[in-house]
Design goal:
384 residues; two-stranded antiparallel sheet
């Protein structure tokens, strides 16, 4: 059952990616037919540039295949398809591999343990590509389509609603997959069993991220057409997050100041929409050594307060000073926004500070078999 569930997850994620890009292309075509040149150009730019960037990153993430095949996939922008096919082959190999009558994920021998670790690491790498695609392409498209729909008035056409819905679902889905792969990989690395992502943790996490995303897009829906205000809010948000991350990394042994600046600027972008441990740590591993990334895990404690505060502050400023809502609806919107952010903050506290945490303090350790006996390794929970 677990193998087929993983296959279904893999296929659904790829279908969601195709539907996301395809719906954006269809919306762009409809804008062109309606004579809306500015929305057409913006939609094309917000689709083409992210797809180009993600295609290069997906090519870099490919593990197998001749260099000529990788170059061809990148050149024709089919690296995501190539990566999906590679993941299907890896799933097939993993599902067929067994030892001593057990699947390698349940076998205690050293070879199976190492294979399980490699498989979990490969899953984490592939989910990072989907996560990057979601916030490079889905997030800006969703924001832009929400703003256009807000400005258009009347009943929005079905294809705009479909594009917004698919983009929103793509973000939520890829955020969940990255978090799941991250915690499973951490448990496997420290030989903790069971190496799974608890369903109760997944429920609380998805609800938390859903509330955060809804609060964020409610802010864009309230703001009608003041793009200058959006630009200033993005800059302020960047300055707050980047400076705090920069301060944390300066205490580590990072190689150069340039790497610190670039990594903080790039990896803090998704924090305009959500926050999570996986969203902090996994992208930063592309820039820094693992020991440096571990030190910045403490950043999540500050981010749990900072990011919801920024969401609430920015939304309040937009509603009170820049929205075109009547006074009555203004306070209703302010109450909805505040309530959503507060509920999201409560969910984050439940997720990190209760039995719903995916990395509890009491865990079982897989015994490591050596020639002269068994060594019991104590887990280290560096989130505490």
């Amino acid at each position: 059952m677990g193998a087929y569930w993983k296959l279904g997850t893999l296929v659904f994620g790829f279908i969601l990616y195709v539907a996301d890009v395809g719906s954006d292309i269809y919306v762009a075509i409809q804008y062109y037919k309606e004579g809306l040149i500015a929305p057409f150009i913006t939609t094309v730019v917000f689709t083409a540039i992210p797809v180009f960037i993600v295609n290069i990153f997906a090519t870099y993430s490919l593990k197998k295949g001749h260099v000529t095949l990788k170059f061809a996939s990148c050149f024709v922008h089919l690296a995501m398809v190539h990566l999906f096919i590679e993941e299907l082959y890896r799933w097939k190999e993993d599902s067929e591999h067994s030892h001593n009558g057990k699947h390698f994920s349940k076998c205690e021998c050293a070879d199976c343990i190492n294979r399980f670790k490699s498989s979990c690491k490969a899953t984490l790498d592939s989910t990072l590509v989907g996560y990057m695609e979601a916030f490079a392409e889905s997030a800006p498209q969703c924001c832009f389509q929400v703003i256009v729909m807000r400005n258009s008035g009347g009943t929005p056409p079905w294809y705009r609603i479909a594009s917004i819905s698919v983009s929103f679902l793509s973000m939520l889905w890829n955020v969940y997959l990255l978090e799941k792969a991250y915690w499973v990989n951490r448990r496997v690395e420290q030989d903790l069993t069971p190496a799974t992502y608890p369903k109760k943790s997944a429920f609380v996490f998805v609800l938390w991220q859903l509330l955060l995303l809804l609060a964020r897009f409610l802010t864009f829906a309230i703001l009608a057409s003041n793009y200058v205000v959006i630009f200033y809010l993005i800059i302020i948000h960047y300055i707050a997050i980047v400076n705090l991350m920069h301060w944390f990394f300066r205490k580590s042994s990072c190689r150069t100041r340039c790497i610190i600046s670039v990594s903080c600027f790039v990896t803090s972008y998704p924090w305009h929409f959500h926050l999570s441990t996986s969203g902090l740590e996994v992208p930063n591993k592309c820039f820094h050594r693992e020991e440096d990334v571990v030190k910045i895990r403490k950043f999540i404690r500050y981010a749990l307060i900072l990011v919801p505060f920024l969401f609430a502050l920015e939304g309040t400023i937009l509603i009170l000073f820049f929205s075109e809502l009547p006074e009555t609806k203004m306070y209703i919107a302010l109450g909805i926004l505040g309530g959503t952010i507060l509920a999201a903050y409560v969910m984050s506290l439940i997720y990190y500070h209760s039995r719903y945490h995916p990395f509890p303090t009491v865990t079982q350790v897989r015994p490591i078999v050596v020639k002269r006996g068994i060594i019991n390794v104590q887990p280290i929970n560096d989130d505490e």
